[in-house]
Amino acid sequence: MNTPDNSSENTTENPRGRGEGRGRGRGGPRGRGGWQVADLPSADDAADWFAGRLPSEWFTDVSVTTDREEILVIGTLADESATAAGAEGRIGRFRSETREQRIEIALEAEARYQRKVSWGASLGDTTALFTHVSAPVMTRLRQPERQVLDTLVDAGVARSRSDALAWSVRLVGEHADAWLGQLREAMSEVDKLRGEGPTL
Questions:
Q1: pLDDT in tens, 70-112
Q2: How much is the pTM?
Q3: Can you tell me whether residue 172 is helix, strand or coil?
């Protein structure tokens, strides 16, 4: 069972006035067009960094995923015999007991990678997100594209056009994983070749 918690952490838990690991690193990324982002450090080694930085007793396994705005860290807790209710309680206890340490680690990671850090934990079939980033995306749609979104809203699939657009993106992601993976690999090769080229 997936039980995301979309609420921000109380800012009193963070002296910098942010939610739990939700602040942007100093300066923030600046776009330079297309899918490139200027002055944004590579997060290719983020999984290795978190593996070395996280206390070894926290998780039996850690999943680290990144994009331009966010690093999402989801750890697996030990106790496979827990019931669904027990898993929710165990995850809640972990969240409370590790909050201060997670804030400290998130601030370090944000300074290093210039991305917000979000946390989650899983146990058995239960996964909970403590925080996550909802990044706004500006786009212009022509009437046929807007009609697609309005159809989803009218049919009750989505509550608004923005919800319908998010639903559509998730659907494409689910059905195009292999192609998107190849595209990401190709972009990584382009970045690598560009880095090896002459500086103008």
A1: 899 999 998 777 788 999 999 999 999 999 999 999 999 999 9
A2: 0.59
A3: helix
